[in-house]
Amino acid sequence: MSVPPPRSRPLLLLSNGTAEDLIGARLLGHLPEHGGSEAWVLPLVGAGRAYAAVPGVTRLGAALDLPSGGFPFGSLENLRADLQAGLVGASLGQWRDAVRAARGAGAVAVVGDAYALMVGSLAARLAAVPLIHVQPLLSAHYLEGLGVGGALRELNALGANLPMPYELRLARAARAVFVRDAATARYYAARGVRARWAGSFAMDVLPPPERDLSPLTGGRPVLALLPGSREDHRESLPLMLRAAARVPEAAALVAWPHGWDAVTLPGGWTFHEQDAQTAWAVGEGTHVTLLRGAFGAVARAADVAVGTSGTANEQLAGLGVPVVAFPTHGPQFTPGFARRQRRLLGEALSMVNPDPAVVAAEVGALLTDGARRARAARAGLARVGPAGALPVIAAEIRQLAEG
Questions:
Q1: Contact 201/184 with Cβ under 8 angstroms?
Q2: Is 302 within 8 Å of 280 (Cβ atoms)?
Q3: Which of 319, 332, 323, 327 is nearest to 378 (CA)?
Q4: What is the spatial distance between Cα 73 and Cα 83, in angstroms, rounded to a whole number?
Q5: Contact 306/333 with Cβ under 8 angstroms?
Q6: How far is it, in rounded angstroms, from Cα 40 to Cα 52?
Q7: For 325-368, what is each residue's pLDDT tens digit?
């Protein structure tokens, strides 16, 4: 009678943000049966909805839904609101959950920033299990042209612009560290961290086209509108719609990640719902299509994009699509965040004032200037890079599980 091989202990995966949850969920999808056992996930921000569709996953801890959407240091208002919502007590509970779970895990994987790495490092060290860090947020490109004055102006984002000494020290103790681009891998290596760049996390989680959009575009150039998954959309969507009305030569498509009840329209516009996936915003002589569950299709159809999003803007740039952006009052796409993304994406991103006429003029200029569009495409392709990181990271985790 054959004896079945022993099952390896679960992987404990920590992540702290919407994009980080997506990366974590897709990473687990590259692990057949998660290395022969189940996986435990502890989302540090939000409900971790991305993990719901992954089989064999056990969600740990209570959901931490913050008013800032996970950006407590984006502004004083964000921090104040999160503290009032119980940030400190809930966070301490997550540290306890991580330490407790790590004692039964075979390895700890962290997808996130320095804070997530602190939680994961403590849990892995106390449980004497290996740690893998996936750092999808930091980039050496954030330092380009920053200077002392720029760093002082962005003190609240200091740890987001470059790794702090304590993060580098923790990273040196990890079994493996994966970063978002080649420039960041070189930056880490120069500081004694064995970091690797294996591909773009953002492009790894870009979904395939979900539907045929040609009936909606009529052969016209496509303007993708990306208001984002954070509450910035309540401010940015109305402005985007008014800008789209000033670019009648393009078919404007909104990649909408929320329910229809969250749609905010400019004054005088009306909303028409066809079904759970398709709706129209009508006003100022134009019809703009809103699509749910079709981000992959909208991204690949786009000729130019207008975005107030983090990962989505990067993904469009990584496809070679020029992105026009404007700052909001937050919680995410604040002026500081917008400046940082501009440094990250270079010529792939045009930053303009939050005015419909200005946004429309920039879109029109990109649609008519092929040489400029080509420069933006080259910048995006070079800075974001191709997909391919998550299979490499999964192989590293499998090797740990087998060891």
A1: no
A2: no
A3: 319
A4: 11
A5: no
A6: 12
A7: 999 999 989 999 999 999 999 999 999 999 999 999 999 999 99
CB atoms closer than 10 angstroms to residue 71: 25
Residue 166, token pair as written in the block: 């304590």
CB of 305 closer than 8 Å to CB of 321: yes
Structure tokens at 356: 């419909």
Provide the angle, in degrees to the nearest 10, between the axes of the packed helices 356-368 and 370-384: 100
Rounded CA gap, 270 and 65, in Å? Answer: 31
Give burial (CB, 10 Å; 0-12/13-18/19+) of 98.
Answer: buried
> For the segment 113-169, what is each residue's pLDDT rounded down to a tens digit?
999 999 999 999 999 999 999 999 999 999 888 776 776 677 666 777 788 899 999
The 176-179 sheet, strands edge to edge:
57-59, 39-43, 11-15, 107-111, 131-135, 176-179, 195-196
Question: Omega before 331 cis (within 30°)?
Answer: yes
Q: How far is CA 291 from CA 208, 233, 253, 272, 299, in A?
A: 15, 15, 7, 12, 12
- pTM metric for this prediction: 0.87
